[in-house]
Amino acid sequence: MPRNRNTPQELTLCTYAALYDASDFGGIPEIFSLGFRSLDSIKMKVQNIAAMFDEEGIERGNSVKGLSGKPHGEIGRRTDWEFVSKYLQISKSDHLAECIAILYEAQNLPGDITREEAYKEGTTRTVTVNIYERNPRARKACIEHHGAMCSICGFDFGREYGEVARGFIHVHHLKPLSEIGNEYKLDPITDLRPVCPNCHSVIHLGKPPLSIEEVRALLEKERT
After folding, report:
1. Which residues span the domain enclosing 170?
2. pTM of the model
3. Cys bridge to 41: 37, 88, 93, 193, which one at CB 3.0-4.6 A?
4. Which of 107, 131, 164 is at the close of a domain?
5. What average pLDDT does the segment 27-35 reach?
6. 156-197 pLDDT tens trace
7. What separation in angstroms does the CA of 166 have from each of 149, 156, 158?
8. What secondary structure letter does DSSP report for 127?
9. Taking Cα atoms as reference points, which of 99, 49, 59 lies closest to residue 79?
10. Are the beta carbons of 153 and 196 closer than 8 angstroms?
């Protein structure tokens, strides 16, 4: 994805982080994963937007469109106040749903099940693997229990890239769709596993998806 700053997607995510808590959708690293800007730049953007919603220390100019998002005495890129201010008019839950939808669309991997390919099991309820894999609270619980190392190849983003990537990993939903019914309740410890993007893509190349054990066996075979 090109580094096109101040896109609606980036502003939506950064505005939520400024108003509430970015950990609700996986944290600042999730915004960074979209490739808009550097991690430090994202943090600065969040601070700038937070300042826009603060009645004190804001250079308002002659109109609300004069808001710069910077405290008095600082000069920086002007943020689209008309865009970010609309989130004062919607609920936190609606804003969070919009953030998750942005991340869902951006991180949908080749071979993943899409919304249109959702599985129906004799009921009107529709479920997709992606919903469970993208749920920020489930992801957090999975990673806290299993760690941020790939369950298949052992890759650790923090070890390879340093602090900027520490804790970054995909999670994979283990339970087959055929076993998911109306009363299904996700257990992030038993139903999810951390996997790197490469191994995750290979899992979903299979029809049905390959198991973690099958992908690990393929990898070990090629390594020997």
Report:
1. 115-223
2. 0.46
3. 37
4. 107
5. 78
6. 988 988 887 888 888 888 876 556 655 567 788 888 899 998
7. 10, 8, 4
8. E
9. 49
10. yes
For the record, the structure tokens of 74 come out as: 């600082």
The larger pLDDT score, comparing residue 151 to residue 33, is at 151
Q: Are residues 128 and 219 in the same domain?
A: yes
Instruction: Return the structure tokens found at 189.
Output: 């410890």
In this structure, the answer to whether residues 30 and 67 fall within a common structural domain is yes
Residue 143: inside a domain:
yes
| Residue appearing with tokens 């939903």 | 173
Count, residues in the chain: 224
Which residue reads 């999670």 in tokens?
171
Of 18, 20, 19, 42, nearest to 30 by C-alpha is 42
Q: What is the pLDDT of residue 180?
A: 61
Helices (H), 80-196: 81-84, 92-107, 129-134, 136-146, 157-161, 188-191
Residue 203 lies in a domain: yes
The two structure tokens encoding residue 100: 């998750």
